[in-house]
Amino acid sequence: MKTCLVVDDSSVVRKIARRILEGLEFEVTEAEDGSKALEICQRQLPDAVLLDWNMPVMDGFEFMGHMRRLPGGDQPKVVFCTTENNVAHIAQALSGGANEYIMKPFDKDIIADKFAEVGLIPVGQTMV
Fold this sequence. Notes:
Elements: E1 2-7, H1 11-23, E2 26-31, H2 34-43, E3 48-51, H3 60-68, E4 77-82, H4 87-95, E5 100-103, H5 108-117
Domain Response regulatory: 3-119
Keywords: Phosphoprotein, Transcription, Transcription regulation
Protein name: Chemotaxis protein CheY
């Protein structure tokens, strides 16, 4: 089973993302900020990271930079999931190592489409 780390300071967003990702057959781990997410990644890297940008302690962009420098840190697929919608933020995320970018609010179809685009699930996979 593939693993996904959901990193968001909103417990509601984490809960919704967990339900969607478990429906896509992912084992889900949660972190409420980049610092806690980095601790998780230092123990074991996930296959995917669904990542918020604006969080206390360590933001998503800073976390991604630290994770990418870990041994094997280039492997997880990182999908930013944030309210930051200006072109500069999107360009910064993608040039900094993100694989894709989702705008909040999101739904199961948006996540499934983006995860299929980066090769995490087969194209057209539906919820179970």
